[in-house]
Specification:
CATH topology: Glutaredoxin
CATH superfamily: Glutaredoxin
Largest sheet: 5 strands, mixed
Number of domains: 1
Distance between the termini: 58 Å
Number of helices: 5
Shape: globular
Number of strands: 7
Strand order of the largest sheet: 1-7-6-4-5
Strand content: 15-25%
CATH class: Alpha Beta
Helix content: 25-40%
Low-confidence stretches: 1-18
Radius of gyration: 16 Å
CATH architecture: 3-Layer(aba) Sandwich
Oligomer: single chain
Length: 192
């Protein structure tokens, strides 16, 4: 009952912050961090150097799980231009990602035909949060902290954090796609 109350009390916060943009000096870059892929192989963020990345904490049993479809659609739309979606499964909100990495991968590929990279399951809030999420919080402040599943961070091709989008902002919403397009337009072309 306590978990249900905590989950329900968090829902109004989902609507409080729709977008926070990075301002000022950032400490380091996303390239300073590494994840493990859902198949337990190394997944250093540096492998995305020169690409624009939308990092999203995901969950398989959430009311927002349908966002996987839009995430896959924008990944396919912008992929050839140097864009990546990186899904970070997390069980931090409402115990809505209880499965193993293998179960999560099977669900994402089976239910939503997800082809974008997924990490192993990680904490995205609190003392045990993955270092990327601690860095994002330090860079953008508490207003940009994930408050539920499917919170989104946009990372520029140079590894700098550009913006944060709340759970309720759909991945294919104009404010996200226009931010992706602007970041892609600012990305130097290979050999250029």
């Amino acid at each position: 009952m306590k978990r249900l109350f905590a989950a329900l009390s968090a829902i109004p916060m989902l609507f409080a912050v729709s977008e926070v943009r990075a301002q000022g000096t950032q400490l380091g870059s996303a390239y300073d961090f590494a994840f493990e892929a859902i198949d337990s192989t190394p997944l250093p963020f540096a492998q995305f150097r020169g690409k624009v990345v939308l990092v999203v904490n995901t969950a398989s049993f959430c009311g927002f799980t349908k966002q996987y479809a839009a995430l896959e659609a924008i990944y396919e739309k912008y992929r050839s231009r140097g864009f990546v979606v990186l899904g970070v499964p997390s069980n931090d909100f409402g115990d809505q990602e209880p499965g193993s990495n293998a179960e999560i991968a099977q669900f994402c590929q089976g239910a939503f035909n997800v082809t974008f990279p997924l990490t192993e399951k990680y904490d995205v809030k609190g003392n045990n949060a993955h270092p990327f999420y601690k860095w994002a919080l330090a860079t953008l402040g508490n207003a940009a902290a994930p408050k539920w599943n499917f919170h989104k961070y946009l990372v520029a091709a140079d590894g700098k954090l550009l913006a944060s989008f709340a759970t309720t902002v759909e991945p294919d919403a104009a404010k996200i796609t226009s931010a992706i397009e602007a970041a892609l337009a600012d990305t130097p072309k290979a050999g250029g």
